Amino acid sequence: MTENKIRAGIIGATGYAGEELLRLLLMHPLAEIGGISSVSFEGQKISEVYPSLAAFCDMVLTDEDAVIANSDVVFASLPHGLCEEKAKKVLTLGKAFIDLGADFRLYREEDYQQWYGLEYKEKQLHEQAVYCIPELHRGLAGGKRLIGNPGCYPTSIALGLAPALKAGFVFADDIIIDSKSGVTGAGRGLSQKTHYPDCNEAFSPYKAAEHRHTPEIEQTLTELAGERAMVTFVPHLLPVNRGIVSTIYAKLKQSVTLEEVHRSYEVFYQDEEFVRVMPLGDYANLKNVTFSNMCDISLHMDSRMNRMIVVSTIDNMVKGAAGQAIQNMNLICGLPEDTGLKLVPPAF
Predict the structure, then answer these.
(1) Which of 117, 136, 154, 276 has a 20 to 30 A CA-CA distance from 161?
(2) What is the dihedral angle through the alpha carbons of 192, 195, 198, 199, rounded to the nearest 10 degrees?
(3) What are phi and psi of 184, to 5 degrees?
(4) Which residue, among 301, 328, 32, 25, has the nearest Cα to 164 in the 3D structure?
(5) In CATH, what class is 153-316?
(6) CATH number of this structure's domain 6-150+319-332
(7) Which of 185-189, 248-252, 303-307 has the lowest mean pLDDT?
(8) What is the spatial order of strands in the sheet that 307-314 belongs to?
(9) Is 152 an annotated catalytic residue?
(10) Above pLDDT 70, what percent of the chain?
């Protein structure tokens, strides 16, 4: 480290999550950029790819080995199937690795095979890896060197349901989740569905009941409930740049008032800086979390159907990706968890 700062490197710095990591790390008071890499733009300045970074960061994009050599903590923002080899390189050198992709999120290799079509090549790495939503798993992360950073949809959903499942208010095996994400969630590579004429003035579900985040969602909810959780998960593409709104429907096990549920959420999250439980009658709105590491949760009840309704909102690029990754870096490096993450959402 230089002057006690963490040297942070980013592999895959030109994707949306990689650029967001860089933007946030540039504002982190105890971090400096050790290196950034990109296969597509190697040799170019990052500010040539993202002109908004000009004068803030004009570093040249190198190869991954240079990033690893010059960093204490390496973030990887890459498609699934690419990070086991990179994690092995980093851990062999005694450094820390945080994967923003899917390679270290699932405990069971069978789930990874079923949903991603690949096998674990470095099985011993998965025994060392920790999946960490800090508000729910921080006790597992301290001193670890390999973190599977959670997905954006699963983060919004787990935070939205954790108090209810822990308290045993709802049935874990009959949960319906309707989630909407901004277009950045699809990544920087252009596809027909994210082409401007197709996504502007449009709103549509996709991958209904077959999205790859499903096993990650069920894995975390099962842990919280202490029994097998099963969900119907339907994501939607929302024609905005960033943000996630997850509306969650869960059948109540017992007679409980909305006020009692709300109080349990307030107690559960009373010490969590990045989670806000909205007053009863208010609705969580993605506008109020944009560009921040916050999760807003509002609670509602369908008394006629004996069903609890949770609305959970996050910024998919911050709390759903880069911000949570930095929160995990702070955890494993022994820093205050909110370091570099006191990001106030803009009002408009």
Answers:
(1) 117
(2) 120
(3) -60, -20
(4) 301
(5) alpha beta
(6) 3.40.50.720
(7) 185-189
(8) 204-205, 231-237, 170-181, 244-252, 307-314, 295-302, 275-277
(9) yes
(10) 99
Domain boundaries, the chain: 6-150+319-332, 153-316
Return the DSSP state at 174.
E
d(CA 242, CA 254): 37
What CA–CA distance (Å, rounded) separates 216 from 54? 37
pLDDT of residue 13 exceeding 90? yes
Location of structure tokens 């921080």? 138
User: What would the two tokens of residue 71 be?
Assistant: 């960093």
C-alpha distances in Å from residue 8, one per residue of 34, 97, 330: 5, 10, 11
Q: How far is Cα 146 from Cα 129, in angstroms, rounded to an integer?
A: 5
Structure tokens at 152: 């954006």
Q: Which residue has the tokens 């759903």?
A: 320
The structure tokens 């597992």 sit at 140
Token pair belonging to 209: 């009941």
- Among 57, 83, 132, 152, which one carries the catalytic annotation? 152
CB atoms within 10 A of CB 267: 12
